[in-house]
Design brief:
By secondary structure, the chain is of the alpha+beta class. It is built from 6 helices and 7 strands. It has one domain. Helix 3 packs across helix 5.
């Protein structure tokens, strides 16, 4: 991680070429060990142009080729940034999650001290501050990209749709982009689920003693005015 690094959370120190001062860096490795590609693949993350072998399905058939990936572990670097804006369209910095939050606190009548002291702080308990202090932990409770990749592994990719018996079928040259869009879709669904769960409450009674209830009338009003739209086929 770059941007603001919490040493108790991350010990990753990037090389200068990967240092991004206004975002968090994430390096994701693709390891297609044991997979053969039916076609040469020019996607920059999946690139497979090294000839593995040629074969014939019958003595009279033309020879076909199988390819192996150019890299044993192909890296892809991502930079994560986010930004907070208030109802007046005043925005903090587009930066790493921690820096983005810190730069926008004043827009919601908060300071860093208020955030750490909440709900015991006697200051900045107006509607704007109260709603932000409910919004922020709800957002943070949703699985982030790192959580999604650690939990799903290769299941987070779309490319296995083209995979069978260890053979990878033709892939588009932008397969890596399709995978990233898929990750974003999962992330958005996780965020939506987090807000629905916050408003609805848990279904497992065993976790009720550990719930943090709305702290004041502004937060209760926010929870009581949530609407969930569901479409049914």
């Amino acid at each position: 991680m770059n941007g603001t690094v919490w040493e108790d959370v991350s010990d990753f120190v990037s090389i200068p070429e990967l240092t991004v001062p206004d975002g968090d860096s994430l390096v994701i490795f693709l390891s297609p060990e044991g997979i053969l590609f039916l076609n040469q693949t020019d996607d920059p993350w999946y690139r497979a142009t090294v000839l593995a072998l040629k074969y014939q399905t019958s003595p009279d058939s033309p020879k076909s080729a199988l390819y192996i990936p150019d890299e044993a572990a192909s890296p892809m670097g991502c930079v994560l940034r986010q930004q907070y804006c208030n109802a007046n369209k005043e925005c903090g910095s587009l930066a790493s999650p921690a820096d983005a939050e810190a730069s926008a606190l004043h827009l919601f009548h908060l300071t860093t001290s208020d955030v750490w002291a909440w709900p015991n702080s006697s200051q900045s308990r107006d509607a704007s501050a109260s709603r932000f202090m409910l919004f922020q932990p709800t957002l943070q409770s949703a699985s982030n990209l790192r959580d999604i990749l650690l939990a799903l592994g290769s299941s987070s990719l779309l490319s296995p749709q083209h995979l069978g018996m260890g053979l990878m079928g033709p892939l588009p040259d932008n397969q890596w982009q399709l995978d990233v869009i898929h990750w974003l879709t999962i992330r958005m669904a996780a965020m939506q689920a987090s807000f629905v769960t916050t408003a609805h409450g848990p279904t497992d009674e065993a976790v009720l003693p550990y719930m943090f209830l709305p702290d004041n009338e502004y937060q209760r009003d926010l929870c009581n005015n949530q609407v969930s739209n569901a479409s049914h086929n």
